[in-house]
Amino acid sequence: MTVLMGPGGTLEMATTALERGCESVFVGPKGWSRRPASDELADPEIKDLIDWSAGRGKDIRIAINVMPEPDEISLFLSKVERYAGWGAGGVMICDPGCIALVRRHFPQLDIHVSVTAGIFNIRDIHFYRDLGANIVVIPYRWGVEELEEIRDQAGMQLEAFLFQATKRGRICPGRCYSSSYFHIAHKRDDEGKDQHIGSASRGGSCHRICRAAWNLTVGEAPSPDTPDLKATPELLLWEMPAYVSLGVNRFKIPGRERSPELVGDICAFYRRVLDHVLAGHSDVSPFAAEWAWVRERWASERGRRDESRITVAAQ
Ligand code: SF4
Asked: Which of 130, 138, 158, 186 has the highest Cβ tally under 10 A?
């Protein structure tokens, strides 16, 4: 079965994604999923969503993809136990030790290797497979060529984001800590989790400082090496037939920080494209005009969110 999974930054967004064509939605518990608290759910909301989805034959996945501190492991495990008991279908994890721990305690759960594990090659994929993960999220700096390279040997289900970094190879999700150097604060929540505001890998959120307007100088002169990272990732279209034929069986729509209205439109769009491709059509050009429309709205909302995050880091 091929699954279309949407984002659930809020309850409204999650139910919208499921009602507009997704079989599955991923959500993040507050302080545990690399996003600002406004785009994460409190545990009672996660339970409500799982109950709501189960009655409609839908599935909820939990992104719990930060790296727990030494004193946070038992809290991490108790949260996974809670979600598994409520009926979540799987968890997305990036910490290798936690992947092995969850597999040992919860053999029934799907374990996705989060894109923030920073996979580079087939050896990395095998490392996580051997720890017990059964789904690998393909890095969004990869394309069809890299998928062709690894698909026969992966030994895991393949999950692909429906967007791709346009500056391919420059950004590796999960392996950048630069935001932490600009602005960080600690905040213990009611359960005892230390949320490092400014460090996504440790429970806070990234300030997106790579997307600021950088001006490097050498002495007084502008540097010719000023980085140009400020490109908005693009939603995919043309690659979808190849991805399906290469065995990708889970497609993930990003956007927990977007508006529920835009997420609903994107989910409905990809539902139609995926059904078209799964019906055996390899020509997706009939969707090109609508694709341009959702891409433009996506880029516009993303730009506004990035600017607000960069401004916080600069304060
Ligand atoms: S600063 Fe940029 S590259 Fe680094 S984690 Fe944040 S968004 Fe990713």
From this structure: 138
